[in-house]
Amino acid sequence: MIARLIDLRGAVFLLLLACFATIVPMMSLLAEPGSALHLPSYAVSLFGKYLTYALLALSVDLIWGYCGILSLGHGAFFALGGYAMGMHLMREIGDRGVYANPVLPDFMVFLNYDALPWFWLGFDMFWFACAMVLLVPGLLAFVFGWFAFRSRVTGVYFSIITQAMTYALLLAFFRNDMGFGGNNGLTDFKDVLGFDLQAPGTRATLFALSCLALGGGYLICRAVTQSRAGKVLIAVRDAESRARFLGYRVEYYKLFVFVVSAMMAGVAGALYVPQVGIINPSEFQPANSIEAVIWVAVGGRGTLVGAALGAFTVNGAKTLLTGWFPEIWLFFLGALFVAVTLFLPNGILGLLRRRRRAARAEPATTAPAAAE
Amino acid sequence: MRSALALLASLFLLMAAAPILAQTAETGGATLEALAARLPDGDFNDRAGIVSRIAATSDPRAAALLDALLEGELERLNADGRIVRVTGPRRQEVAFDALTGEEIGPLGRGASERIRVNNAVRRAIRSAVGVLTLGSPDPAVRISAAQAAFSGPDPEQIEPLSAALAAETDPAIAKLIAEARAASILADGAAAPADKVAALDTLTARGDRAALSLAIAAQNDPAPEVAAAAGDTRDAIERVLAFWDAARNVWFGISLGSVLMLAAIGLAITFGVMGVINMAHGELVMLGAYTTFAVQQAIVASAPWLSEWTLAFALPLAFLVSGSVGVAIERGVCRFLYGRPLETLLATWGVSLILQQLVRSIFGATNRAVSNPDWMSGAFQIGQMQVTWNRFWIVLFALAVFAALTLLLKRTPMGLQMRAVTQNRRMADAMGVRTGWVDAMTFGLGAGVAGVAGVALSQIDNVSPDLGQSYIVDSFMVVVFGGVGNLWGALAGAFTLGVANKFLEPFAGAVMAKILVLVFIILFIQKRPRGLFALKGRAVEQ
User: Fold this and answer.
1) How far apart are CA A75 and CA A283, in angstroms?
2) Do B197 and B225 meet the contact criterion of CB atoms below 8 Å apart?
3) Which residue of A has its CA nearest to B514?
4) Would the pTM count as exceeding 0.80?
5) E-strand stretches of B385-455
6) pLDDT-derived band of residue B494, with 50, 70 and 90 as boundaries?
7) Interface size between A and B, measured as CB pairs under 8 A
8) Are B296 and B315 in contact (CB under 8 A)?
9) Looking at residue A145, what is its pLDDT?
10) How large is the ipTM?
11) Which of B93, B103, B147, B130 is nearest to B4 (CA)?
């Protein structure tokens, strides 16, 4: 069972993740500030952010790589999870806000709210917020998928209506009277479960938790894809009509995997918010969702590990390039989209595999083959 | 005030030239001279009464006299009681005879006494002057006088308005005067109920908001038949207003729909006809808009006399610029990805990022303004609805583009080849159609139309690197809603969505309306996964 769940690639991935999860907090907490090994706490949060992006990429890969559903609205599930967590953090500020209102967050005082809107009730409890992080994206995905898959909206059409979904949510969350802070979103968080969000210890813990979530997400995806249901999913990806004619209720399989994927994206968003310190409607932008898809494409679609790798690579490049030459970044990202789809249909992992195969096939001419 | 004086002075001259009016100068028993001489006597109430009687003389000189009184320039000479008008800079005032205009010269201190006015007298003067100008030979002056009389109803005006109505020959102005008279009758507590009912009928015919508020006020009339008639009038006007509100919404919807259609119709060709998802479509629209901006800058810099013709140069140029970029995208990227629509989507998204950044690097990130030519600025009135010229031309332009594309696809050899390749690529290939070339041309056509749309959008929207982004989601919605493979789908989709959006806006607000439309499309796709006008037959099987 374990052996089927964790292949060689997965083992390497989980091992690396475990190292990462221990070394980064140690470098941040134990090393003396000023020493070469010391990691400033902003870097810990930055890496933590990459980890949440990797989890989002994983969730996209689960549906796109294994079921052929290209969602251009996965950023919406990510943002909804983020908002659920942000609402809890907002309530935890309590009377330490600018207006010192013990119940209402600052923006509500500012907008003359008398009482907390009904959908904010319960978010003062951490467990409730955590449940919502899973339930809200899950429920939206369930309802949306129920309608879409049952009426056999597939391929490009599905992509476009998911884009419409996240666009509609973007517009909705921009409205002040929605009760989610309008275009400023939710910010100025103080602490989570009593721990100061600015403290290096809290950041290191959140980082380790993100590693754990990514590892857990990976295992869940593996479990799903290696199960019997996973085989059906791949059948649906490759020949949907044929799978249906064989008697499988294709829409239920798709719905299941879509909901699981949305919940994973929600968890990623929930971990993203405390580390970044803000959640606002721009997270719903269709461009963000499309970017998540390109992470998967860069790493290698349908490999899970590749999705995480792609998220790290692209976002690392983004951080470096926007720092060095801000104008170049969009050129680079655009070229990446084109180059990956044209020349690297299986992403970085596909490239590595091809190299390895080429090396194995022609052991006599190793040197020229590698140079190729 | 100077210009108003000048206007009145010219009026004075014009009226002096109108002999018909001069004959009626003796009405009311007293001449203008006699009434003017009585102006300084009595209290303010008497003065207001005399003002009304002066107006009633319809003497051509009355308007100037009353205006001088309003300005506080009328004085009475202590020596002989003559009424003079004193004007000029302070301490250098010169007196003129108020009626004949004869110059008297500077006045000594204490030689005259000013005829004072209070607010009641000023009000009387204003309404009297308004009525006086009803006799002006200049139609524009008569129209503004009638409108002024309508907005300031006063029982005193009834009589002069009736006289003016009888003398008026222009039916349009006569209608305005009749409405002003009706408003004044309704304001008169002493008017006969039958007159008031007739006045209400006149207001019903006018049917705008001002008439509505008068009718609502008349519902409190003590006479039951007047109150009942006012209720009917109110209902009738409200029906008319509701009609025009609906008409306005339809127009705004059509206007929005035409913009959507312009943005989407190129997409309907590339996505609908070729099955290629071109996420860079919005950027092709943006390129068209920037081409217009560049043409405008070039013309301003080197040939300013051509500035009215900016659009004429921009249209073909934008078509060429966007079209060639489109061909480059097709040959460089999409060609390798046929049959893999999702990959095409990602690659063209990459192209869109590159194009955006390219434009941002060249033109800067700020909004650029493209000015409207004269024939596209301003507005005209239909019934109770204002239509701006630029929106009007864009609707026409959108329809023209649609017609041209439909003809191209149905009636030309190129269109025939395009449809052949769409329906059965291999068969077309076997029949000798150069499918690769047709693909490039079709894509170029869709992209060129996007550029042309950009020219139109530059007239109503800011030109910025994000221009395309703001239309891309909407354009996809239009195509998906209308159904692929059919230009009529894009037409129906765009106008349906535009009108639906504008009808929802009054109830839900602009943003909510947009959200509701999006939700509606998402639900609609469930019902008809292939849009309003779905392709039938073999073409459906990808």
Assistant:
1) 7
2) yes
3) A168
4) no
5) 385-388
6) very high
7) 120
8) no
9) 93
10) 0.84
11) B130
